[in-house]
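User: I'm putting together a teaching handout on how multi-component assemblies are represented. Below are the sequence lines for each component of a complex, exactly as they appear in our records. Could you produce the 3D structure of the whole assembly as structure tokens, so the students can see both representations side by side? Please keep the chain order the same as the input.
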Amino acid sequence: MSFGTSEYRTRIQKTKERMASEGIEVLLITDPANMNYLSGYDGWSFYVHQMLVIIIDEDQPIWIGRGQDANGAKVTTWLYHENIIPYPDDYVQSDTKHPMDFVADILKQIGQDKRSIGVEMENYYFTAKCYEHLKKGLPNAKLKDATLLVNWVRVIKSDEEIEYMKRAARIAEKAMETGIKSIEAGVRECDVAAKIFYTQVSGTEKFGGDYPAIVPLLPSGEKTSTPHLTWTDERYKAGDTVILELAGCYKRYHSPLARTVNIGTPTDKVKALSDVVIEGLNACLDAVKPGVLCEEIEEVWRKTIEKSGIIKDSRLGYSMGLNYPPDWGEHTASIRKGDKTILEPNMTFHLIPGIWLDDYGFEASESFRVTENGCEVFAKFPRQLFIKDGLLTN
Amino acid sequence: MSFGTSEYRTRIQKTKERMASEGIEVLLITDPANMNYLSGYDGWSFYVHQMLVIIIDEDQPIWIGRGQDANGAKVTTWLYHENIIPYPDDYVQSDTKHPMDFVADILKQIGQDKRSIGVEMENYYFTAKCYEHLKKGLPNAKLKDATLLVNWVRVIKSDEEIEYMKRAARIAEKAMETGIKSIEAGVRECDVAAKIFYTQVSGTEKFGGDYPAIVPLLPSGEKTSTPHLTWTDERYKAGDTVILELAGCYKRYHSPLARTVNIGTPTDKVKALSDVVIEGLNACLDAVKPGVLCEEIEEVWRKTIEKSGIIKDSRLGYSMGLNYPPDWGEHTASIRKGDKTILEPNMTFHLIPGIWLDDYGFEASESFRVTENGCEVFAKFPRQLFIKDGLLTN
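Assistant: Of course. Below is the structure of the complete assembly, with chains in the same order as your input.
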């Protein structure tokens, strides 16, 4: 397990307090990050239905999942083995049986089917069909939306979680250095991606890396006009701008990092854009401290870059930490207009003020924690446009 | 794009035929593999809501997604740019606005909101909340479950798709060879995983690799009692059994492959289990040909291994090919009791008769296509228990 049992118990206690305040007696958790956060469960089994059941007046959670994954739950969680309940394999991707029917049956058997039951309505791993089957199977329950209930417990990290994110940052620095060093005219994009993956997963001599929740994003040339393209097996050309967004990951905790490289002298407009973004990024980091609202950081950004004429209409960043594919973000606080979240010590964000225009773009980002009086940036990596061909770089 | 426009048009036509037979006039596709299959769209943007809209009497699909991903849709799809409709960023992970409200508004604007509308109820990327918002936003529509409608179109592959899966198999062979060669007592699990990732993504000299939909699964020692654990930074010990399940991936098409390695002489029970699984696997492959039902392959397995006393209660395999995380399986045909799918040429399966017992397990698998009179196994890789320390291996 990644943490001692007492840390898991503290998390359960905080979750139960939120449940109580929202009138939820039984919480069905399908978000793999929330399952891991409360039980330690860690395996690539989230492609089938599984859940953790938190009952407000019971000591331990119940894990329900596919039969062949039950031993995985025994190995990775702090739960009593009798709280690990496997469902038979004919429930898997079947057109006649659904795992949520099994869940409803279990809740009936243990007398929890007439209570107020929270479900994560907006989670990748709780489909529309899951909800329909639960509604049908639990006619006497009061189903309530508990989206993000546990995610909000996750927002403030413990010191041990911060330590894990710092280890992830050591990996992110190595992976970014590897990426920037490998990008040259004539090199295939896939070979750069492969070296980044190698570095992410091997980690450092002292500790290994885990798989990040998002693969390296590596748009190049005109494709830098959009952030979420991966790589091809084409070769870089002289003049190409290349965006690298990646993360280090340690025991499912992330430190994302983005930088931009130009192969040869950048065009004036790429250079100008990089100056704007880096100035704005620096100003935002300077503004972070407890008591500030997320929307106030966005306002600092907007006022700092106003003179450039550039307008960024997408959010500047988001809370992150523990996660599984497809996203390392926590889906809670965002650094954007209208977000009234008040910054507190040990909140952790990825601040990524990328700008994507018609045929080019630029990204530079930092992951940080809020400290007692400011912020601590996790990765130590030069905050600049990197230019490849002997001009600068590290 | 991975295919010519005519292949995409053929796929759209087949999809419309299924829509017609199920009384669906408008199909909202949220499965990223189905989106890719019909439009070419390829980007790691599925962590926010996006969809492809197929209208039965319109020539082209409509792509709806996040603003910053619209340029990605322009780069990777065959769609007219006016059919690419971005939503503003304040719909992203917001507690006041939902992207499905935007989708409902668009359907109203184009006069499609009073029709029979299919949604993929059982898909990771169509949450319970998506459905609730669509129901509210489209009061005059008749919403129908269209789960797997496009997945079933995908079941029979074109020759070009088969060629992509063969390329994926070349990568899988290299990745498996790398993994088996790297596993030694004293080596960290993460370093083996890192080398596998490197090989998967760099691919071959002729073509690069794409990211598989599942990371390498590498349970070792007692953890081989369960299939879906990944890796740690601990070191392998002499005597450890190690399961490797991985895939090669080319342009989102997969060829999965599993093998098991023993560091030093295996115990008698591991050796015996490997003999059972490999005999059963061989018998199943021999039984594959057009006209046979999926459940008949399972029956061959059961009768072949009956004498061993081992019972496998989980499915033996599944249709697969094009996909995105978290699963490379297509969620259509399964090789198991009760599955009446009739095998046809160019159906493609991953046959993975893994056995996981109380404290050990064994996996060996093959990906294959059904041919005119039998089956063609994609990867050329010895089908055996690998024993590391000069005894055999390749």
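A couple of points students might notice: The mean pLDDT of chain A is 97. The longest strand of chain A covers residues 253-263.
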